Amino acid sequence: MSNPGILFDETMLKRNEDQDEDILTIVDECDRCTKIGFLPEVEASYLGLLIHVMDLTSLNSTDNQKTIEALVDKALTYTKKMLKTDIENMASNHSCEIHNYFTTSTLTPQTVCVSSVRVSDAVQSINCQNEHIDIASVAGGFPMGQVPLSSRITEVEYAISQGAAEIDIVIDRGLANLGDFNRLYHDLRSIKSVCVNGDVTLKTILSVTELDSYHTVYKMAMTAMMAGSDFIKTSTGKEAENATLSHGVIMCQAIKKYHNATGYKVGIKPAGGIKFNEQALSWLILVKNQLGNDWLKASLFRIGASSLLEDVVKRLSIVLKKLQTNY
Fold first, then answer.
1. Closest among 146, 276, 288 to 207, alpha carbons compared
2. Given this model, what pLDDT does residue 17 score?
3. 182 forms bridges with which residues in the sheet?
4. What Gene3D superfamilies does UniProt report for this protein, alphabetically (predicted)?
5. How confident is the model at residue 20 (pLDDT cuts 50, 70, 90)?
6. Would you say residue 326 has pLDDT above 90?
7. What is the pLDDT of residue 90?
8. pLDDT value at position 198?
9. Which residue of 129, 190, 199, 208 has the fewest CB atoms within a 10 Å radius of its CB?
């Protein structure tokens, strides 16, 4: 269910400062779980989930029709091609739930994420394939967000008209650091109305490492949800520093409070610098521990990455070989 948003309520921006004491403990537990490792069955299912919640991304200044064709081909064929032998060998040795999962699964990311001017290239590439994948587009003056609202809305409308099923919008971090959350709310509300008309998922990028405090991260997360964001996203991937699990804890706190107050579930999307399966697994454990198993699906959890898929598939191949010898 899409998050329709609510009227701006300044009381929702208040955060319990006592929660700061829990942040390091929560982060340490996530890292500890990843370092200790998982049973092969559990790790295989988690790695499979990471593939399915991935927004496979290309947001380079050098992108063109050929690079987007390669992105789409990678999204639709890479995992199945690389794991074909491992999955077939599992079938020859035994039949189990994990084997059934990997033989019936699409093994594709949830979306390909591109810039608005490359959406049409992605559509053309997908139409040449026998499979479908949704297209997400960054918009709204990515990555800075320092453009007039009318221009931001125009770009969102353009991306949707070209075939984008999801919009990753950037905010004006300058306004956030000034504390002008009312204006940010109304800006995002205007963009939400465009997405609602097109039945499009709205993800709002907070650029958490460019916000001046955890309190500002929390307030901006809550403002974005009140405005109707279906996901809150950590980063553009263009910031000088990448988001940390600590930022993720703050965002999860806001999501829980919003859900408790409204009944609406909002998703979370870490992005930026997530290149290794261990990093992604730590985010998965954070979401599982803080928000619950209900959030472990693509409608409520995404990971934005350009090179993570290769490392996840490499690790998954190792784990599937372990399963072959264990049964």
1. 146
2. 78
3. none
4. Aldolase class I
5. confident
6. no
7. 77
8. 79
9. 199
The CATH superfamily label for domain 10-326 reads Aldolase class I (3.20.20.70)
List the catalytic residue out of 269, 275, 297, 321: 269
CA distances from 95 to 92, 102, 106, 152, 305 (A): 8, 11, 19, 52, 32
**Residue 269 annotated in active site:** yes
User: Could you give the dihedral angle defined by the CA atoms of residues 49, 268, 293 and 275, in that order, rounded to the nearest 10 degrees?
Assistant: 30
Tell me which residue has tokens 């929390």. 218
